[in-house]
Design goal:
0% strand, mainly alpha, 2 helices
Length: 74
């Protein structure tokens, strides 16, 4: 129950920030509303890619000997 409440509050925070920034930038309620809807959708779509990238970085760092510069290839 707490996890669902936390997730909901994070989504509402993202939507509120997106709306506010776009409204302040444009003065348009419509653009603010569109930004409030599109921003969380983009986050949901990109978060798995972001996590996968960081998993690769972590694995590369763990595999490299200590003191050797790390090069991550994708």
């Amino acid at each position: 129950m707490v996890a669902a409440a936390r997730t909901t509050s994070q989504i509402l925070l993202h939507m509120g920030v997106a709306f506010t920034v776009m409204y302040v930038a444009t003065g348009s309620l419509a653009f603010g509303g569109v930004a409030a809807i599109i921003e969380p959708i983009c986050n949901v779509a990109l978060l798995p890619l972001h996590e996968r990238l960081w998993d690769r970085i972590k694995a590369a760092m763990e595999a490299a000997p200590a003191g050797v510069p790390h090069k991550v290839t994708g």
